[in-house]
Design a protein that fits this description.
182 residues, five-stranded mixed beta sheet, 3 helices, 46% strand
Length: 182
């Protein structure tokens, strides 16, 4: 069996360097010797995603429009963060409060995922927040219009199977997080 080898970056340049979008173009040499001069990498910030469960066992979801695919999605609260400014856990608590108005009585990390490691640089930090309570109104960003939904754990699996919940990070957090209760 051949030993796997990393690709070698021969040259790299930023082709888009905007606050909202950064794209790097790499010229790479593959282990087989072939050169690819237009391999694009999307530089993305890490994401904190939280699975909030109320005292009575409901899960707090958000429903919002996602422009890239032009549809509304039911997701768990999440958002980008800068690890030089705040921890992933602090970002998860902040996003939960901003997007839903809920705060957790306890929070624990349940995993780290890579969203799309073939092209994206970011990780998704997953948290389980238990006994969340309504604390305040939402405090949304200019691009956010969010409906807060409380969905029973039993209904979640039906919604996944029906395609009503279809965002990968949300589904991964549900499978990982709800296993903590078994």
């Amino acid at each position: 069996m051949n030993k796997l080898e990393k690709w070698h970056i021969l040259q790299s340049k930023m082709v888009i360097n905007d606050k909202w979008c950064q794209v790097r173009q790499d010229e790479i040499k593959l282990p087989n010797g072939k050169i690819i001069n237009d391999y694009f990498v999307y530089i993305k910030p890490d994401i904190a995603l939280v699975l909030p469960i109320t005292c009575d066992g409901n899960i707090v979801f958000v429903k919002q429009y996602r422009h890239a695919v032009g549809q509304f999605f039911i997701e768990l609260p999440a958002g980008r963060f800068d690890p030089e400014i705040e921890s992933a856990e602090d970002a998860a608590i902040r996003e939960l409060k901003e997007e839903t108005g809920y705060i957790p009585q306890g929070i624990q990390k349940i995993g780290n995922l890579y969203d799309k490691p073939s092209k994206d640089t970011n990780q998704i930090h997953l948290f389980l927040a238990d006994n969340v309570i309504k604390y305040s109104e939402q405090n949304l960003d200019i691009t956010e219009e969010i409906e807060v939904l409380l969905i029973s754990q039993a209904s979640v699996w039906e919604k996944i199977q029906a395609g009503e919940i279809s965002v990968a990070g949300t589904i991964a957090a549900l499978f990982l997080g709800l296993n903590f209760f078994k």
